[in-house]
Every structure is written in C-alpha cells, then in structure tokens.
Amino acid sequence: MGLTRPGHGPDTSTTGGGTRAEHSGPAVRSTYPLYEFALTTALLFAVVTLVRWLMAPGSTLLIADVHIALWVVGVCVGAVLLLLIRSSWGRRSGAHMNPAVSVALWLMGAFPGRWVLPYAAAQLAGSLAGAGLARLAWGRAVSAAPVGYAAVQPAPSWSAFMVSLAEAGCLVAVTLLIGFFLAYPTRSRRLPLCLAAATAVIVGVLGPLSGGATNPARQFGPALLSGTYGSFAVYLIAPVVGAALGAGIHRLLQRYGPARRVPTYRLSADTTDRDAV
C-alpha cells in the first residue's frame, strides 16, 4: 500500500455529466519501478526482521502470546510503511509496494496502465530481495520454523474461500479509502497515516485468521523462499480481485453519487523530481 500520485501533483476539474479522471495517469519515469523495488525490499526486510525477533523461539525479544505479537508486528509494519511513503523515493514513485494497489489506481484513472506490470514486477522482485536479505542478516532463524521467512498461513479452520473473502474484502476497503482521498485531494496528507493504521489493524485482527497479507508482494518472496505454497494462489489473486471490485465501486459512487471535484492527472514529459508530492 502506498501513496497515489507518482511524481506529479493533481489538478482538479469537473466534467459534464459527472466527475472523472480525464487523463490516463500521472507522469511516471523509467526509474520509478526501481524505487518500487527498493521500497518493497525495505518493507519485506522489515516484516521478516520483526517476525524473526518477536516470534522466533529463543529470541531475546520474543512475545509469547501470538495475538499480541501480531498486533506489535502490525503497528511496527504500519510505522515502517508510513516512513517509506514519506521518503524521497516513496514520494517519487507513489510508494505502492503492492501490485493490487497499482491495479486499483489504474482502474480509478490515477495511474497509467502501461506501468502496472513494471511496477508489479519490481514489487514482486523486491519481495524476494527483502526476504533474502533478512536471511543473510539474521541467519538460519529466518528460514527455520516457525518463522519460515514470515510467510503467512491461514488458521486451520479457515478454508481457501474464507481467506479469499478476507483478502479481497480488505482490498475493497483500502481501495475505497484511497478513492476517498482521490475525491478529496485537499485531505490527501492524511492518507499515509490512514494506510499505516489500516495495515496495523489488518495484521492484528486477520493475522491469526486469514494471515492478513492483503498484498501479493507480502507473500510472494517469503512463500517462494520457504516453500509455503498453501493458498499461494489465493494470496496472489484475491487482493487484485478486491482492488478491481473496490475501483468499480469507487467509479459507481463517482458517477451516481454527489458531484465532487476529483484530480485530473496529466502525463508530462517534462515532469521533474521537484514536482513529487
């Protein structure tokens, strides 16, 4: 999850018959996927590091109660996410760090479609890199049970269908949250904090149940490195489905709800880094 406008601030406009984003997306430079790779690498390194030190047996920082541990992990991950979003690179690329968020922004008209695949590839590669770097930094405890590169797994009582509903439902909510700030750009400074808080709640509440990944990049690297393939497809696909549903609901609200002034995003060849939000 991340900000919404890579390297370019929005203009606002209304169009006849309703409001909509008039252009295909904000300006994106060829270096921005590299920033997404670096940001996602940092995010996954932080996630695996937190799980290793807070949940591995024998750790000096071990929290014995799994539910409390997951709430602490969630709050810390939210704080890391907030820092990454507000970082220089995050302000330039948009700090998506989540393929489902990139898809949602594209479908809401806030991100160029041709950049979805490069961003997603960079995010998934960053997932592998971040988990791998954590293994190099913290040793065998990262790859051994119960840490297992911090790959998430659902509770035994949760079916693949229930996990799909939870993962997709979270992305519907997150997409609508982002859509709200797209419709009210004057309040956009609150979005990073809201996303950080949402992340903490998702991990704390759903971590012991569905796993609380809600991000294909969150599960991709850890699952591959640990060989945790249970519900692997669910964790990759369900968030993207939820993002698409959320974007569809957002467009319906924009079309049939009260008229709002929404951002107009422009592709500009001469956009510079100083334009980053």
In short:
The chain is mainly alpha-helical and 277 residues long.
Describe this structure in words.
There is one protein chain. This protein has helices at about 30-55, 65-85, 90-95, 100-105, 115-140, 140-145, 160-185, 190-205, 215-225, 230-255, and strands spanning about 10-15, 260-265. The relative contact order is 0.22. The two termini are about 15 Å apart. It is globular, with a radius of gyration of 18 Å. The chain is mainly alpha-helical and about 280 residues long. It contains 10 helices and 2 strands; from the N terminus they run E-H-H-H-H-H-H-H-H-H-H-E. The chain has a two-stranded antiparallel ribbon with strand order 1-2. Helix 4 packs across helix 7. The longest helix has 25 residues, at about 230-255.
Overall morphology: globular
Q: Determine the structural class based on helices, strands and strand pairing.
A: mainly alpha
Question: What Rg do the Cα atoms give?
Answer: 18 Å
Strand arrangement in the largest pleated sheet: 1-2
Following the backbone from N to C, one meets helices and strands in this order, namely EHHHHHHHHHHE
What's the end-to-end separation, in Å? 16 Å
Strand segment tally:
2
Q: What integer is the average pLDDT? A: 86
Q: How much helicity do the residues have?
A: 55-70%
Low-confidence stretches: 8-25, 261-277
In percent terms, what proportion of residues is strand?
Answer: under 5%
Structure annotation, total helices: 10
Q: Largest sheet, if any? A: 2 strands, antiparallel
